[in-house]
Amino acid sequence: MLAGPPFPSFYLFEQPLPAAAFVLAVSALAVAIAMRRGSRPLLVGALVSGPLLAGGLWFLAASVTTPREQVIRLTRDLVAATSPLDEAVLDRLLAPQAVLVGPGGGAWLTRTEFDPIIRHVLARYQIVNSHPRILAAEVVNPRGARVLIDVGTRLGSQDYGERPIQTRWLIEWLRGNDNVSDPAHAWRAVRIQWLEHPAPNGVQPRSDVWS
Q1: What is the pLDDT of residue 184?
Q2: Which residues contact 21 (CB under 8 A, 6 or more apart)?
Q3: Helices 40-63 and 17-37, packing angle to 10 deg
Q4: Which of 21, 50, 172, 207 is a Cys-bridge partner for 191, taking CB atoms 3.0 to 4.6 Å apart?
Q5: pLDDT recorded at residue 182
Q6: CA-to-CA distance for 100 and 203, rounded, in angstroms?
Q7: Is the pLDDT of residue 210 over 80?
Q8: In this model, does residue 211 exceed pLDDT 60?
């Protein structure tokens, strides 16, 4: 459904370990060749340049947060803000025009209905906590991104068992005001879609869950 992480920015800024490991492997090979040839300049160059380049890749990744990483972090924050309910965080992360839709795309809830419905659901199902698992994230253009997640929700009621229930969601983010101290705060969720879950223990979308 969503495109994979972009190459090469993913391995430069998000997951630098493979690139750093490759650089160190080439450096080790150069050291072996230098020792075999008895070349001191090549040996010194390989011993110095390899770790420096690998360290530079790691520092670069640590200092740059890509838009994809931003929306992944915000998605985790959004899920965390629902149990327990944190209205301040929801106000920051949800756009005024945000809408919750069903698997077919039909609107189920508007932004003004979110907070009271979340309170109702928390009480009705005795939700203890929810933890997202990021399945895919895609920045579709400079202003738009989508994140696909599974959410494991633990319920306090013994009627539902002790294992967390699983739900699947697609969250669409829109980048608005860039005049903020943290670039990640420019993103807001505009569309949250409850999708059908393929797992046997997955909870399927139902509009009556809110009633």
Answers
A1: 62
A2: 54
A3: 170
A4: 172
A5: 63
A6: 16
A7: no
A8: yes
